[in-house]
Amino acid sequence: MSSANPGSKRWTAFYTALQTAIQRSTHKWTYEDFTECFSLWCEEEPASSSTVFSTVAQHMESGITNRVDELLVQFNIKENLDKVQTVVSEAKARKKQQEPYEGHDLWREDLQPRAAVRARTIPLLEKERDRLKEMLIELDEGNLKLQAEMQANVRAREEADAEATALLDILEQLREKWDEVAVDDIEAWTLQTAESIATKEWTVTTHLVPAAYRRTTPLVPVPVIPSFAPGKDKEQRKAELDALARELDEMKNKQAKGELEQLGRDETLLWCCVNRYVRKRDGKGGAGQQGLTLFFAHANGFPKEIWEPTVLYLTNVMHEQNASYHISEVWMWEAVNHGDSALINAGKLSGMYDWQDNARDLSHFLLHYLPEVALGPLPIHLPRLSHTVTTPRERCGFPDRTVVAVGHSFGGCSLAWAASHEPYKRLFSSLILVDPIIADRKPTPTGEFLDYMDPHIVPALLRRDHWTSRAEALELFKSSPFFRRWDPAVLDIYIQCGIYDDPKGGVRLKMEPIHEAITFAEKLSSAEPWYHLCNIDERVRLKFIMPSGGGQPGGPEQIKEKQRLVWRRPVNSCNVINANAGHLIAQETPRQLAADIHIFLQENHATLKHRL
User: Fold this and answer.
1) What are phi and psi of 269, to 5 degrees?
2) What is the 3-state secondary structure (H, E, C) of 456-489?
3) What pTM, to 2 d.p., does this model score?
4) Which Pfam families match (predicted)?
């Protein structure tokens, strides 16, 4: 134990006393004590035992000394003792010389040490007390915040439990609703459809899947179309229909401006029908390779089966030209307010509709319900797939399918929305958009936006929806300029699958005219895909099939708009013009449409040799 700096006398005296104490403590255990403990060893080897004793004593002294030095440094003992020595020495010197001094250390004979200590320590203690009070206040505030957070967490947990209970109730309702679904009717629809397309190659089945939950729009009453009562002239009826059209249009304007948010979102459980067409052979092409999966989305006002003539013509051209691609499965989608879906959802549909919901519904089906490739039959109610299947689809697309999606008009707009949004954009290998309704309008409620009203709303409200028989409906359709342009096979399938037997007598359109008009009233969702097209993955092959303008609604400006549309996403994109049709390409020229689809598949998906 040593000190590099001698320091003051007070420190030297303290340090010397400390050294003496250490030495005495370490040598208090004498050699005689050591001998008593190790007597035999000390007698036989006195020199070695004496050396060990000295080493142990020195080690003890060194250890104590080092630890004491650490404590002296830690508590700054030397510096403090030196200060005390300096203060005392200066005070004694001033007292001896009797010099006047007004400082804090003025020597006073009457000063009591306890009072002096109290005078110096009480302010420090009060300061420490105030600091501790502030700390307690901060802790109290922190505790209050934690308590508030805990209460909020408890409320959130209670709300989550309530929501979980509500969802369980919904699932129970879903099960009950499923028990109410007319499965026999669905099987009848399937048989009816099968008669129209079934061949030696294909098996046709109809299936149900839940629509996306919740809906984008609120649940509002469905308006009633004014009847053409006796005594009511045409002008009066036209004025009533114009007023109803403006009402539907204004409702969509309010939605666009956010004025309907207080109504919440429709939580009705809805269903979508899909048709599956699968090969009867092995579902595979040459060399055991899996073929393409075609997915079709219809235009507004038409059932899913409207695509069947196009698919039949496509299979014919595949055989005729010995195509080098192969189709394993075809799925035809149907929106909630169309065709068989509308019959199942009758009485549950809202008086508002958003095209975005159709995009969500079909995306929901592709991601969560389109089964992994299966050759056998599937249940009518397709089960929801597990996360082990859907998560890889979200990240990388289908591992076992090559999906080519074809959408016409309203259906094309829905597919464009789905292919440009997460987590659905990787589900598609190719898109074929047949004159999609994608408008070059700002997707915000500007004046121009609000002033626009779709000209098809009033004609939809005027549409006749009841006849005495299918034969009567067919004869009237054939005499109509609108239907006269259609391919006969398409008109036949429309009569067969777009109309159902009315329990009250006669036949009736599956899609009510009011819901067709409600669908035409869309504005915002038909403009959004214009801005999202560039977000479609560049690996997705994109083809537009557009009319030349004959029979096309709108003027030159709309034609120019479509010319700009086909190059909104120029990479990996192409387009072709169908000079023989207006907007209803799938209805008027299904053969040419099939040929255009065939060319696209042959150029982009020719990976195997077709075998008859």
Assistant:
1) -80, 120
2) CHHHHHHCCCEECCHHHHHHHHHCCHHHHCCCHH
3) 0.69
4) Abhydrolase_6, Nnf1
Q: Reading across the β-sheet that carries 541-547, which strands appear in turn? A: 202-210, 271-279, 327-333, 292-297, 403-408, 430-434, 541-547, 573-578
Are 356 and 482 in the same domain? yes
CATH number of the CATH domain containing 226: 3.40.50.1820
pLDDT at 288: 42
Q: Is the dihedral of CA 593, 599, 604, 608 positive or negative?
A: positive
Whether residues 80 and 186 share a domain: the answer is no
What pLDDT shows up at residue 50? 82
Tokens of 449: 């936006």
Q: At residue 395, does pLDDT exceed 60? A: yes
Task: Give residue 285's pLDDT band: very low, low, confident or very high (50, 70, 90).
Answer: very low
528 shares its domain with 385: yes
Q: What are the CA-CA distances from residue 325 to residues 19, 288, 311, 312, 469 (Å)? A: 100, 13, 15, 16, 42
Residues 320 and 422 in one domain: yes
Cα angle, residue 244 at apex, residues 238 and 249 outer, rounded to 5°? 125
| Terminal Cα distance for the chain, rounded | 104
Q: Give residue 610's pLDDT band: very low, low, confident or very high (50, 70, 90).
A: very low
Per the model's pLDDT, the better-predicted residue between 554 and 43 turns out to be 43
User: Which token pair is 63?
Assistant: 């250890």
3 state SS of 220: coil
Domain assignment of residue 610, yes or no: no
The string of DSSP codes covering 334-375 is: --TTSHHHHHHTTTT--S---HHHHHHHHHHHHHHTSPSP-S
Query: Residue 535: is its pLDDT beyond 60?
Result: yes
Mean pLDDT of the chain: 84
Contact indicator for 432, 545 with CB cutoff of 8 Å: yes
Q: What is the pLDDT of residue 146?
A: 86
Residue 336: domain span: 181-190+205-604
3-class SS at 290?
A: strand
Q: pLDDT band at 29, cuts 50/70/90? A: low
The alpha carbon of residue 173 and the mean position of all alpha carbons in its chain are separated, in whole angstroms, by 25
Question: Furthest-apart CA pair in the chain: how many Å?
Answer: 142
**Domain C-terminal end among 65, 97, 129:** 97
